[in-house]
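#help-structures
NK: newbie question, is this the right format to request a structure? protein is Acyl-CoA dehydrogenase family protein
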Amino acid sequence: MTTTPADQSPVAAALAGLPRVVDLLAARAEEHDRDATFPYQGIEAVHEAGLLTLTVGRRYGGPGGTLADTVRVLAQLGRGDASVALVTAFTLLRHAEQARVAAWPAAGYRRLLTESRRGPVLVSTLHAEPGGRPGELPATLARRDDTGGWRLTGRKTYCAGAEALAWMAVTARTDEPEPRIGTFLVRGESEGVEVDPTWDQLGLRASAGHDVVLDAVRVPAELALGLTVVKDPSAGGTGSAGDRAEGGVPAAELTRAWRDLALAAVVLGVARSAADWLVRFLHRGTPADLTGPLGGLPRYRCALGEIEAQLVGAEELVNGLAPRVDRAEPEAVARTGPAHLLATRAAVSAVQQAVTLTGNPGLSRRHPLERYLRDVLSSRVHFTPDEAVLDAAGRAALARGARP
């Protein structure tokens, strides 16, 4: 974590460094996308600006960044490099959850923060499994060992930043007669952890979302968090300590709401970069049969206006909900699922329209627009499926209608 000038709050100091960081990320984004190499220098820049630990709670000596701060930061980072923004998002989400429910043991979290003062420390929750479906028990298995700890075996997929993770919060079930589900904290350098380089997606190519294979990885007993018997896994449960948070909102629901809006901010940042590039193209582009740039034609202005309207609506939705989630308003927390779905749709639609307007230049690898399109399309890997969001929204609407 970085030091802060006396006349600035830690959050303000971190936000002040955002423009420079975004410029640095944008300068290297094409190279990392082309070669599918992990952006270590970009992560270092985010860390040095104090952005990677923005959501460390004040009780731990951190800035105490809110969700409103987080979506602002991630939208800007998304403008520079979507892969860096995505990996940053997962680390910020873990620190924010710790600030709310203090799930990590004190000694372990102090160790993480000490390491964060020396350099960037990436943390992420590893939940998805190959072939896994919503509502299923995790296939990753935790068995007791002769020390009283656990041995973790399984495979996790879509693990953004896999090759650079210092800590992995792995969702697993125990092999007990009545299985429990919880989160097992694993050091990335632990014996038995292997990164299988499976990530070869169309977009987010620098995010290193590889599979992580765990082969009897030892986890001390104190690093097994929130072990709970879950009769119906689809009903919730993240393995986090603390059943309820402020305002009577379940901790798991706040965790989901943070994730919904944080990841939505990333894709909106990418879409904003696409819109900015389109504006520059319309200012410069002058076909042979015209005397002025394309931006002078009503058809192109209206099309650009359509893109702008979509993005303004999505940004206002995300930015408006974030402070309400910070206040733990139940109605706002319940709306973040539909909000992330609408924001993602708006981002994808905006970039697709930009590509259509520009024609061949928009699809050329000499320009970043085609990368923006690939990135917003690939971001869906990390979102709740549309069907699940819509089903939950429909159920909630039916429940409201059934009330007297």
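mod (FA): yep, format's fine, and the tokens are attached above. Residues 233-242 have pLDDT under 50 and may be disordered.
NK: thank you!
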